Amino acid sequence: MASGNEEESVGSVSWRLIGPASELSKKQCRLMHSSLGYGSDVCLFYVKGEFFAMDARCAHSGGPLCDGDIEDADGILQVFCPWHDYDFNLRTGQSGTGLQQQVYKVKLEDGSVFVKHTSPLSLQPFPSSKKS
Ligand code: FES
Question: Which branch of life, at top level (predicted)?
């Protein structure tokens, strides 16, 4: 069957159900595992009543952003990587260092949190996929 859409075969970007907002809002950050593997895991932050999703591994050298401190600088929320203290804007993923961290859209629907991503995301690790 011919597919008119190249992207679909790579993995289409769709809304991925993460879980109930009432539960996910209890922690400042949750690690969401990606079915694509470690490098594609995503952080789900809950800060000041809002959810944000961002690649979990720092664009600098792969530090764990879920373990970073979050600061509010005049209304701009930033996470600081625990490894070398680079800042990343939770909303845009931009860093004052010039690096860019990938961020994802988050929506709330019927009390559930959804993140727009190319791969399924899960709070539990995926069963270990075959190593190449
Ligand atoms: S790995 Fe995050 S700042 Fe270096």
Answer: Eukaryota
Q: What is the pLDDT of residues 13-54, one digit of tens each?
A: 999 999 999 999 999 999 999 999 999 999 999 999 999 999
The residues near 124 (Cβ < 8 Å, ≥ 6 apart) are 33
Instruction: State the closest ligand 1 atom to the C-alpha of 86, by its place in the atom list counted from 1.
Output: 3
State which residues form the domain around 63: 15-110
CATH number of the CATH domain containing 104: 2.102.10.10
Beta-bridge partners for 76: 73
User: What 3-state DSSP class applies to 129?
Assistant: coil
- Whole-model pTM: value is 0.88
How many separate domains does the chain show?
A: 1
pLDDT tens-place string over residues 77-129:
999 999 999 999 999 999 999 999 999 999 999 999 999 999 999 999 988 65
Give the position, in ligand 1's atom list, of the atom nearest the Cα of 61: 1
Residue 15, ligand 1, Cβ within 6 A: no
DSSP 126: P
Instruction: Confirm or reject: Cβ of 84 under 6 Å from ligand 1.
Output: yes
